[in-house]
Amino acid sequence: MLDEPNHKPQGALLQPDGSVVWRVWAPRAENVSLVAWPDDSRTETAMTPEGFGYFTYRQSDVREGLRYAYRLDDGREYPDPATRWQPDGVHQPSALWFPTEYKRGDGSWRGVPREELAVYELHVGAFTPEGTFAAIIPRLGQLAELGVTAIELMPVAQFPGERNWGYDGVHPFAAQNTYGGPRALRELIDAAHRAGLAVLLDVVYNHFGPEGNYLGLFGPYETDRYRTPWGKAVNFDGPESDPVRRFVIDNALFWVRDFHADGLRLDAIHAIYDFSARHVLAELQAEVQAEADRAGRVVHVIAESDLNDVRLVVPPERGGHGLDAAWSDDFHHCVHALLTGERDGYYRDFGRPEQLAKAYNDVYVYDGCYSPFRRRRHGNRVGEADRTRFVVSVGNHDQVGNRALGERLTALLPPEAQRLACGLLLVSPCVPLLWMGEEYGETRPFPFFSSFGDPQLVEAVRRGRREEFAALEFRWGTEIPDPQSPETFLAAKLQWDWSSPEPSARRRLYADLLAARRRWPALRDRRHTVARVESVIRCDDACRLAAAGTAAPRSTQADVPSAAKRQDFVLILERGVGPGLIACANLTAEALPLPTLELSNRTLLLSTEAVHYGGRRNADRPFDRLLPYEMLLFGPKGQLP
């Protein structure tokens, strides 16, 4: 019987005796040499074959920061595929970095349970003027004060240039040099833990970026058997795929073990193709959770997916992958289509109020039913799955940044509708995700930006953006921002300012509702949620009907003269059991009568249109009607707001 390969971790790894072992998987090379630059000199040493495409070399007395590269058969030198540090960029030599040499400052940290997650997604480069890991640290206290419990960093693995969304990374183990590198990332995570915040890292395992991607010269990391929207897929199930799977799983363990990351957000898993008997996602989750158990910490593995497939979170013994949670875009699409009126692209599938009620009740709107946008049935039923296993938002980097101009809801909706969107999100039984700046109404856009060095790639990206949004340019004469321009990136920088009344009031609404999620029993109860939609007659129409002597039922349009009929809707959401919480939301821009509700033993707890949130609801206004886009929350008497 042939020996089976023993797939070992790659990279330059510090050993217990103080020596360093370099290991690289390079089955496409006959010989591999380690080139190093100690003390301004240059050395070259042939590495020892280990079998099955692995090469290794051990040396003592080497220092952190030593530059090195691998020379392949073509005579050229390349960075380490598993480099932990690329201080000079994607094309330059790698550098030694030893995570065990760093003294941690979060020894008592055990993580945040999934039930307590309220996530704040941010882009490191655009979150502060400096655009670094270190510059985030002074803002952590204010994020904790807001009430979020976790920050989620858009991808930080080394990408080409200085500015990028991060999804073009080519060195999965190396924290971006222009953000501060690996040591600064560890210091950020330590500081976040001291502030009581978990840190989730966005990781990309569906493809590798186009510039600085030398992986194919070493081995079959990619495959032509499948295609993604970004090029070749990762080779998870083809010939010689075992080392590739090990490479990716080791990367996940690296962030959890060596950086104490509290979770991973797996980008676009619908573009991860694996027909192995055991899917790579299930294998990754099992190993990550084993590492979390060894460390005594809570770690979350969360999938971003447009599959609407509950099997992502179903335990392996029931045929699923057993991930901790999955994104659900349907909630965002419901809210966005309803409030903006947009129906282009995938918004074609949304826009009906009853779909929003279904998103509350069933998580997935498309759970096996026909999707006009896809022209086929889509999704499956969530059933009784724990609602904390699904992440929802009213804005994130995709939904904002993939627009032609990167407009936020602040550019698309009036303030009262923005406050309603906040209310709709934070009364959801699912895990809420906020997009940076959303909480105070940031007005700056978040367009797509990059800083590639390859002129052909730069032009291809520019052309692609122009072609994607050609209709918008033609129809409105709107110029699509140049993704390569520094000004496009600078325009995305947060103002981080709520010193004026409106942003301050908006932030107070977010803070109060996030506090309510922690304190109110009905909002902590994720099992009992019932939503419905009622059609009503506008207040002005009801008055005209009354003046004409025509009686109209309060919450139906059945007998209203056709000239007065309008499709105006109120969402009724009940959370919890007993005298739980009732949310009543006006989904229109007109004042509407308050539907008849059973409010015995309940009192008004919160209005999204209260004056102190920037709205027009004050103590003098009667509660027989809903203001435009207003949400009222009624709960047990004595409940703290």
Topology, number of strands: 30
Tell me the name of the CATH homologous superfamily of the largest domain. Glycosidases
Which architecture of the largest domain per CATH?
Alpha-Beta Barrel
CATH topology (fold) name of the largest domain: TIM Barrel
Q: Could you state the oligomeric state of the chains shown?
A: single chain
Low-confidence stretches: 545-565
The rough form would be described as elongated
- Largest beta sheet: strand ordering: 10-11-14-17-18-19-22-23
CATH class bucket of the largest domain: Alpha Beta
Q: How many separate domains?
A: 3
Estimated share of beta-strand residues: 15-25%
Distance between the termini: 70 Å
Provide the structure class: alpha/beta
How many distinct helices? 17
The helical percent reads 25-40%
Note the main sheet.
Answer: 8 strands, parallel, barrel
Detailed description of the structure:
The protein is of the alpha/beta class and 641 residues long. It has 17 helices and 30 strands. The chain has an eight-stranded parallel barrel with strand order 10-11-14-17-18-19-22-23, surrounded by four helices. Strands 3, 4, 7, 8 and 9 form a five-stranded antiparallel beta sheet that branches. The N and C termini lie far apart (70 Å).
List its traits.
alpha/beta, five-stranded antiparallel β-sheet, single chain, Immunoglobulin-like, 641 residues, 17 helices, eight-stranded parallel beta barrel, TIM Barrel
